[in-house]
Amino acid sequence: MKKKLARLLNVLSDAKVSFVVVGGYAATLQGSTYLTQDLDICYERTSENLQRLAGALAPLHPRLRGAPDGMPFVLDQHTLKQGMNFTLETDAGDLDLLGELSGVGGYSNLHKSADSVELEGRSYRVASLEELIRSKRAAGRRKDLNVLPELEALQELNEKAPKKNP
Amino acid sequence: MTVEEQQRLWDLVQNPPPGSKIEAAKEYGVDLTLNLRALKQTPTERAEAMEAALEFVEELRKAALARR
């Protein structure tokens, strides 16, 4: 089985990038059954981390998703510093880099309340159901609101059962 | 998750408390039995299942395009 999104996580972890898994992949890890095609992360915006992030992704040839072929784009520390959110295509799958999450804020806010989740023997910080619900509600788009009933039910089910990873 | 815990969650999904989020999700059309299965899995198993389903969808999409 090809596990492209998990490979992206491994690459970021190997490079010691500071990030929290958010979005649909985080929801999957928390028990959601919605499918997602990309990995969303909220990344720490310190200079050191931007450098680690750009360095980790360089071998995967990051490019702007959906951009015309040949459009010049270099994802380096400077580019990351100039922008906030990036929707990328890489050799290991689609990756969204988010500097901030609607209704939650940036990495430091999110990191505090994130769950530690074991995935293929590694530990990752994954947005809690509470923060996922908060961000979906704040985003307010139909596609975000559509997943709220499932996430809220999962939260209620988790409250009734002991939390085990998570 | 122990069998007793699984039973408790099963009962909650089958007979959700009135006004609960579980009841609301069922009314919205969410198949919570899929979530019950996911909650029995480890996060690695959940990720693998999602990526396998995604791969299946991609194969279907390619097959549909090839038939055009």
Low-confidence stretches of chain B: none
Largest interface, counted with CB-CB under 8 A?
A-B, 35 and 34 residues
What is the mean predicted local confidence, pLDDT of chain A?
Answer: 92
How many strand units of chain A? 9
Number of strands of chain B: 0
Specify the helix fraction band of chain B. Answer: over 70%
**Whole-number radius of gyration of chain A?**
16 Å
N-to-C CA distance of chain B? 47 Å
Helix-strand layout with pairing:
The complex is a heterodimer of chains A (166) and B (68).
Chain A lengths: L3 H11 L4 E4 H7 L8 E6 L3 H11 L5 E2 L12 H6 L3 E5 L2 E6 L1 E2 L3 E2 H7 L1 E5 L2 E5 L2 H11 L2 H19 L6
Parallel strand pairs in A: 2-5
Antiparallel strand pairs in A: 1-2, 3-4, 4-5, 6-7, 8-9
Chain B lengths: L2 H12 L6 H8 L3 H9 L2 H25 L1
Concise structural overview:
With 166 residues, chain A is an alpha+beta fold. Chain A is built from seven helices and nine strands, in the order H-E-H-E-H-E-H-E-E-E-E-H-E-E-H-H. Chain A starts with a helix and ends in a 6-residue tail after the last helix.
Question: How would you characterize the overall build of this protein?
Answer:
The complex is a heterodimer of chains A (166) and B (68). Chain A is α+β, with helices and mostly antiparallel strands and 166 residues long. Chain A has a single domain (4-160), classed as Beta Polymerase, domain 2, CATH 3.30.460.40. Chain A has helices at residues 4-14, 23-29, 47-57, 77-82, 107-113, 129-139, 142-160, and strands spanning 19-22, 38-43, 63-64, 86-90, 93-98, 100-101, 105-106, 115-119, 122-126. In chain A, the strands form three sheets. A five-stranded mixed β-sheet of chain A has the order 1-2-5-4-3, with helices on both faces. In chain A, strands 6-7 form a two-stranded antiparallel sheet. In chain A, helix 6 (129-139) runs antiparallel to helix 7 (142-160). Chain A is globular. The two termini of chain A are 24 Å apart. Chain B has 68 residues and is mainly α. Chain B has one domain (3-67). Chain B has helices at 3-14, 21-28, 32-40, 43-67. In chain B, helix 1 runs antiparallel to helix 3. Chain B is elongated. Chain A binds chain B through residues 1-6, 25, 28-29, 31-33, 35-37, 117-120, 126, 149-150, 152-158, 160-162, 164-166, and chain B through 1, 5, 8-9, 12-13, 20-22, 24-26, 28, 30-32, 34-36, 38-39, 42-44, 46-48, 50-55, 57.
